[in-house]
Design goal:
The complex is a heterodimer of chains A (110) and B (114). By secondary structure, chain A is an all-beta fold. Chain A has no helices and eleven strands. In chain A, strands 2, 4, 5, 9, 10 and 11 form a six-stranded mixed beta sheet that branches. In chain A, strands 1-3-8-7-6 form a five-stranded antiparallel beta sheet, with no helix packed on it. In chain B, strands 2, 4, 5, 6, 9, 10 and 11 form a seven-stranded mixed beta sheet that branches. In chain B, a hairpin with a 5-residue loop joins strand 4 and strand 5. Chains A and B meet through strand 4, strand 5, strand 9 and strand 10 of A and strand 4, strand 5 and strand 10 of B.
C-alpha cells in the first residue's frame, strides 16, 4: 500500500504563476522532507518539516505541515523555468530510511 | 559546499556480472545510505550503514547486494551477479546523524544490465 501519495502527478504552468503540490501520508507524520530531482543532479534537499503547523520557506518555495490531516503542501510563488523538475516528498522513518512519495513532475513554460 | 559524489555516472554490464558502485560521502558524515530508482518508479531505500555495520536494510537488499566502507572516504555497493531487474539509478546519500537528520544525495549511477 502507498504510504505517501502526491498530487498532482504532473503539472505544467506558465512562468510567473503560483502552484501547489500536495503530499498525503497514510501514516502519522513525524517528519517530512521535500526534495527536488533533476536529471544528473540526484535529489536536492529543499527543506524538512518536523512539527505540526510548521512552515518553512526557501527563496520562493514554501512548505507547510498539517499533522492532523497527515498532509504537507509545497507552494511555489511566481514560478520560473529553474523550478522545473520532479518534486518528491519523503517520510522520515523515525530511524534512518526515508520513504519517498510518487513524485510530481513540474514543467514551467517560459 | 560539500557534496556527495558517485562514480561512475553510467555503467553497462552483462547479466551475471559483478558491479561495484562507488560513493564518496560528505566528509564529516557518519551515516551512509543507498537507494535505487527503477525507471518511472519511486526512489526506494536499500540499506543504511553506520560504524562499519549495516544498521537497516530493505527486503530488496538480498544476498546479492553488499556494502563496504573500504577506507575513510569511500562507500561502495556491490551487486554480485547482476540481473536484468537490477537496471536502475542508484543513489548514495549521507547524513551527520540518524533519526531524522537530513540526508544529502549524490547525482546517482545509472546501471544498465543487458
Amino acid at each position: 500500500s502507498q504510504e505517501l501519495e502526491q498530487s498532482p502527478q504532473s503539472l505544467i504552468v506558465q512562468e510567473g504563476k503560483n502552484l501547489t503540490i500536495n503530499c498525503t501520508s497514510s501514516k502519522t507524520l513525524y517528519g517530512l522532507y521535500w526534495y527536488k530531482q533533476k536529471y544528473g543532479e540526484g535529489l536536492i534537499f529543499l527543506m524538512m518539516l518536523q512539527k505540526g503547523g510548521e512552515e518553512k520557506s526557501h527563496e520562493k518555495i514554501t512548505a507547510k505541515l498539517d499533522e492532523k490531516k497527515q498532509q504537507s503542501s509545497l507552494h511555489i510563488t511566481a514560478s520560473q523555468p529553474s523550478h522545473a523538475g520532479i518534486y518528491l516528498c519523503g517520510l522520515s522513518g523515525g530511524y534512518q530510511k526515508v520513504t519517498f512519495g510518487t513524485g510530481t513532475k513540474l514543467q514551467v513554460i517560459p | 559546499e560539500p557534496e556527495v559524489t558517485q562514480t561512475p555516472s553510467h555503467q553497462v554490464t552483462q547479466m551475471g556480472q559483478e558491479v561495484i558502485l562507488r560513493c564518496v560521502p560528505i566528509s564529516n558524515h557518519l551515516y551512509f545510505y543507498w537507494y535505487r530508482q527503477i525507471l518511472g518508479q519511486k526512489v526506494e531505500f536499500l540499506v543504511s550503514f553506520y560504524n562499519n555495520e549495516i544498521s537497516e536494510k530493505s527486503e530488496i537488499f538480498d544476498d546479492q547486494f553488499s556494502v563496504e566502507r573500504p577506507d575513510g572516504s569511500n562507500f561502495t555497493l556491490k551487486i554480485r551477479s547482476t540481473k536484468l531487474e537490477d537496471s536502475a539509478m542508484y543513489f548514495c546519500a549521507s547524513s551527520e546523524a540518524s533519526g531524522g537528520a537530513t540526508q544529502y544525495f549524490g547525482p546517482g549511477t545509472r546501471l544498465l544490465v543487458l
